[in-house]
Amino acid sequence: MSEETLQPLDAPTLDAPGLLVMDVDSTLIDEEVIDLLGDQAGVGAQVAAVTARAMAGELDFAQALRERVGLLAGLPESVFDRVRRSAHFTRGALELIDALHRHGWKVGVVSGGFHEVVDGLAAEAGIDHRLANRLEVADGRLTGRVSGPIVTRVMKRDALLAWARADGVPMAQTVALGDGANDIPMILEAGLGVAFCAKPAVRRAAPHAIDRRDLTLVLDLLR
């Protein structure tokens, strides 16, 4: 696996349009949104324990998500604003996105988290594409269920492929990065796949790794 300071010879170039797709939780932002929601519900430790096992690849992600979301039943819909305010962009995230946009690139995010929080983050950061789960709400409160299909590792990879086609970007000009096991397929599919401060299984699988929490280091891997 190459170190973050070694530029791959066949890396995507900033001299042509490209597409970068990244995970949200613990990649675009420092936190895990599901854990923040768990804190609001008073079940933070239980939720965080399941999150850690799911991201390490020890649990089926969809099953683990349903289990964690079930613990959130009864939270008021206003919790989304509180959680959004408590999330922090990872160091260098906004600078990376701005730099890519200046070179004609597009940026997308794919998340096992939730549109109710991700959409606000994406709007603030100027992100072009987004994919996330949705939480079911009834009478102003979370029901403890996910609304619609759950974003899986396959859906993350497929989003990368679909957005590249829509943007007219060859796969050689794509970058994918994330930290969890469900990011591995898109990391392997991209022209440049990066494990970002990742779990051991992801770091072993990914062609490249960045182990410092600074997203501008991605630029060092591009030509």
UniProtKB/TrEMBL annotation:
Enzyme class: hydrolase
One example GO MF annotation: hydrolase activity
Entry EC number(s): 3.1.3.3
Any one Pfam family match given in the protein's UniProt record, by short name: HAD
Coiled-coil blocks: none
Keyword Amino-acid biosynthesis: yes
UniProt keyword annotation of Transmembrane helix present: no
Entry keywords, A to Z: Amino-acid biosynthesis, Hydrolase, Magnesium, Metal-binding
Family in the record: Belongs to the HAD-like hydrolase superfamily. SerB family.
Protein name: Phosphoserine phosphatase SerB
